[in-house]
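TL;DR need structure tokens for one chain.
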Amino acid sequence: MKIRPCASYVLLSVAFTLASTNRAAAAVMAFWDFGSETVYTEEPLIDHTGGATILLQGGVKDFDGKNGVSYIDADGGSHLAGKAAAWDNVNSESELIITVNTSGWRDMILRWDYSSENTIGDLGPASFDLHYRIGPTGTWVRLLNNEPFIRDGLWHSFAYTNTVLLNQIENNPFVQFRLSDLSAGDESGGDFKIDNVELTGAPIPGSIALLWPNGGENLMTGNIFDIQWQTTGTVVQVKLEYSLDGGAQWAQIATVPNIGGHYGWEIPDANSLDCLVRASNLIHPQVFDISDAPFRIFRCLLNFDLNGDCYVDLRDLALLASEWLLCGDVLDPRCL
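>> reply
TL;DR here they are.
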């Protein structure tokens, strides 16, 4: 059985930086832009994790939001400078918590834009800590300690890309990140804004193995055949196709949810010795499997084949004899 996994993903560099990060292999898992110019929201704009949330707490929050900064996400989506999450008066109790489901994802990067005020009497935070935990009651694990912010009132980008540490939280149903200890250093607190919070990753490679038909079967037109397959990794929907000419041309059978691993296929009207079936990942078509060898589809031309095997023999005669002189018309009094 041939298993064709999707292409391997390029490993991300083991480093963290305050500069923009090359995320060519990444896809958006969850993204927050905190709303348009007039409407502030902490709901994610994009969520491919299922139930991603963000929570600002502590300090004096600005529930109306402040002006944000434009951004182009990892999938190429353009986001105008709308609102930003903000504290009018941040302190050491202020923190931001991100909750996500990382099931089916790897090679994650967490990034955001920020602006820390540098006005005398209104100084924003000078540094922060970053933690993660697995499960709602798990122990917080420190990723960064007293990591400095650039404090000049301008917008800057931060990305945490240490995949050696982040790979510990891949493929988990409940993961939280915590941005905390937003110390102002020499003042009790000041303005701090955060925008374009983005978690990216790569889908964990999956595979499809086609079990049946896998070569040598004889399938008769009009019958129902149970196509069967198995998958690993993330395969949400399966596309099923067949070929009558050894794979030169393909026709679609169906697109089905990847539940149960089987589909009842009504055999098409054809005569061919060189038939194949292909099962592929609908979202990632490079993940697929094909019958290991050709099978036959044939059209039966017999009129008196009673048991559907395309032979008229004693089995058909036995079926005929078992119902000889029986009447099947319930409205005919002679049948009573």
